[in-house]
From TrEMBL:
Belongs to the RNA methyltransferase RlmH family. It is an enzyme of class 2 (transferase). HAMAP family: 23SrRNA_methyltr_H. CDD domains: RlmH-like. Homodimer. S-adenosyl-L-methionine binds at residues 76, 108, 127-132. It comes from Tepidibacillus fermentans. The gene is rlmH. One of its GO terms (molecular function) is rRNA (pseudouridine-N3-)-methyltransferase activity. Keywords: Cytoplasm, Methyltransferase, rRNA processing, S-adenosyl-L-methionine, Transferase. Specifically methylates the pseudouridine at position 1915 (m3Psi1915) in 23S rRNA. This is Ribosomal RNA large subunit methyltransferase H.
Length: 159
């Protein structure tokens, strides 16, 4: 399975980079994992609704250029479906079984995702009704994907 995680913005925090590298290493036994960072759109603090949409649209265009035609796209969105770790494992197992071996997870910027990215997504996934920093979500997502593979393989997960 090929897993791509497309995120808006460049990660700089050393502790997040270390955690991401650890889970990428662990996942390498199960899947090919690629993280793609697309530049975030610089914007002032107080934006109008129209300006926010414009920022999301520009970031969305950058995201869409990184998605391949045969990718099964799971966009992280607060209004998406909430899955348990077991649900994610089952979904990924089903995707692999039915020939959808290229999975792209999309994490938007601080304003979220554009309508165009939502339209391209095959699935909207919510991790919580809470809002998480988009940089931290990369690490959380990698951990959950790793956990999903451990569940699929029936292997123990050390808590």
């Amino acid at each position: 399975m090929h897993i791509t995680i497309i995120g808006v913005g460049k990660l700089k925090e050393k502790y997040l980079l270390q955690g991401i590298e650890e889970y990428k290493k662990r996942l390498s036994a199960y899947a090919k994992v690629q993280l793609i960072e697309v530049p975030d759109e610089k914007a002032p603090e107080n934006l109008s609704e129209a300006e926010m949409e414009q920022v999301k649209r520009k970031e969305g265009e950058r995201i869409l250029t990184q998605i391949k035609q045969d990718d099964y796209v799971i966009a992280l969105a607060i209004e998406g479906k909430m899955w348990s770790s077991e649900d994610l494992a089952k979904e990924m197992d089903n995707l692999a079984t039915y020939g959808k071996s290229n999975v792209a997870f999309v994490i938007g910027g601080s304003l979220g995702l554009s309508k165009e990215v939502y339209a391209r997504a095959n699935e909207l996934l919510s991790f919580s009704k809470m809002t998480f920093p988009h940089q931290l979500m990369r690490l959380i997502l990698l951990e959950q994907v790793y956990r999903a593979f451990k569940i699929m393989k029936g292997e123990p997960y050390h808590k």
